Give the backbone structure.
Amino acid sequence: MVKFPDLPMFAGVNAPSRIEVDIADLEVEGDIPDGIDGAFYRVGADHQFPPRFVNDVPFNGDGMVTMFRFQDGRVGLKSRYVRTDRWKAENAAGRALFGRYRNKWTDDPLVEGMNRNLANTNVLIHAGVLLALREDSPPVAMDPVSLQTIGNWDFHGTLPGPTCSAHCKIDPETGYLVGFGFAAKGDFSRDVVYFEVSPEGRVVHAAWFELPFYEMQHDFGVTRDYVAFPVVPIKGVGDEGLKAGHPHYAWDPNEESFMAVLPRFGRGDQIRWFRNPNQFASHVMNAFNEGSKVHLDLCRSSINLFPFFHEIGQPWSPKGMDVRLTRWTADMASNSDSFESRTLSEFLGEFPRNDDRFQTRPYRHGWMLGFFGTRNALGHVDLKTGQTEVWEAPPTKPVQEPCFIPRGPGATEGDGWIIQAATDGATNLTELNLFEATQIAKGPIAAIRLPVHLKPAYHGSWADGSLVKPSGLV
Ligand code: V55
Ligand code: FE
C-alpha cells in the first residue's frame, strides 16, 4: 500500500499527481487566439513511489512531462512519465529503489551501478527530439508528439562526458544547442565540459576546464561569441558527507563567487575567471556581448536561496534575501580579475525567461516569477524603459515559471503571449493562464482549466508547430 510522507513537499498544491493524461480539448475561459500553433512543454519531479527516506530534497522525483498543444483556438493536454532506467526498475519492483538526492550510498543494492537519471528539470526540442534534461545525467530523448520515451541520448555517441546541464541554450541564429556537463569526471569532480551540438544533433566542439571547487553548476549564459558561467559556492559535501547523512550540497558563506568566461568554440585554457565577494546566483535570463564585454543577466541574491542546501551546522534563514535580476559584466580585453554587477529591476524574483528568439543577443524584454515572502506574481521587465510591470496573482494560486510564445515567425521582440501554469489552492486543480506578453498587468486574456491536479513543474519551453512532429524513432 502506497503512503506518501506527511510533509509539505507532498501536500496540497505539491501533492504528487502520478497520472498520465490525454485530453484532446481543454476547457477555456476567454479566447485562445487562433494564430497560436505550437506546444508548451514542461517537466517537474513527480515521485512514482514514496521515497525511501523522508529527509530528502524536493528535486528527487521522477520526471513527468506535460505537453499543452495549441492549435486552431484549442488546447490539448498530454502528460507522460519519462521512462528512465530508474523509472523502469522501480516500476518493475513496485517501490522506490533509489535513495536520497544525489546520494548513491542510500540506494537499494539491487540497483548498484545503475544510472540515477530522473530527467526532471527541463525539456526542449532540438534536432527533432524532445530532450528531458537533468544535470547529473545525460539527456533522455522523447517523441515530441506521443511523448513516448526513446531512451538515453548521447547525441549519436558524441556527448563528451557523463552529464548534460538542464539549462542548455539554443542559439537562435545558428540552431546550435549549447550545453555543458559538470561533475564531468565523476561525482564531486571539479571538471566541466562545455560543448556545441550542431543542428543535426552531434557534438562538434568540446572544451574542458576545472572549477576552483566542486559546486552545483546549474545554469550558464551563451552569447554570440562567449559562454559565461556563474560559479557560486553551493559546494559538494563529498562521499564522507553523504555517508554522514548530509544533503549533496552545502552553502559556504566564506567563499568568493565567480563569473567564468570562455570564447565559444574556444579551448579550456582560454577561460578567464572574474571574482567578487560571496553571493548567490542561480538562473540566467539571457547573455550577450558587445565586443569583448560579456553581459550575463541572472537572478542574484546576497544569500543562498536553497533552504535544504544550507551551511553545515547553520539553519537556513530568509534574512537578507534580495534576489533581483542583475547584470554581471566582465571584459575579456581587460586585465581586471573582477566582474561588475548592476541591478536591472527592483522586483524580487526568480525563474527568469526572455523571448527565446533573442537568446545570446542584445534584448529588451524579460519575465520572471515573484514568489518570495507572501508574494505570488508575474513580472515583466522592460530593459529599455527600466520599468517592471507586475501582475499580482491570487495568493491562493501559486504560479510557475513563465514562458514566451511569439505571435508569429516575423514578430518583433516581445510581441506575443506569456503562458504560465498555476495551481488553485482551493481545489488543487491546475490552470494555465495566457497573457499579452507586454500587457501582463491587465491580467490573463484566457484561462485554461484542467480537470486534474498536475504537480508543479520546474522548467519548460515553447516549440513552434513546425517542430511538433513525430521523431520517427518510436
Ligand atoms: C535545481 C533543480 C534540480 C537540481 C538542482 O535550481 C537545481 C533548480 C530538479 O532538480 O537537481
Ligand atoms: Fe533550473
User: Anything to note?
Assistant: The pocket of 4-hydroxy-3-methoxybenzaldehyde (ligand 1) is lined by residues 45, 59, 120-121, 135, 218, 282, 458 (CB under 6 Å). Helices lie at 85-93, 238-243.
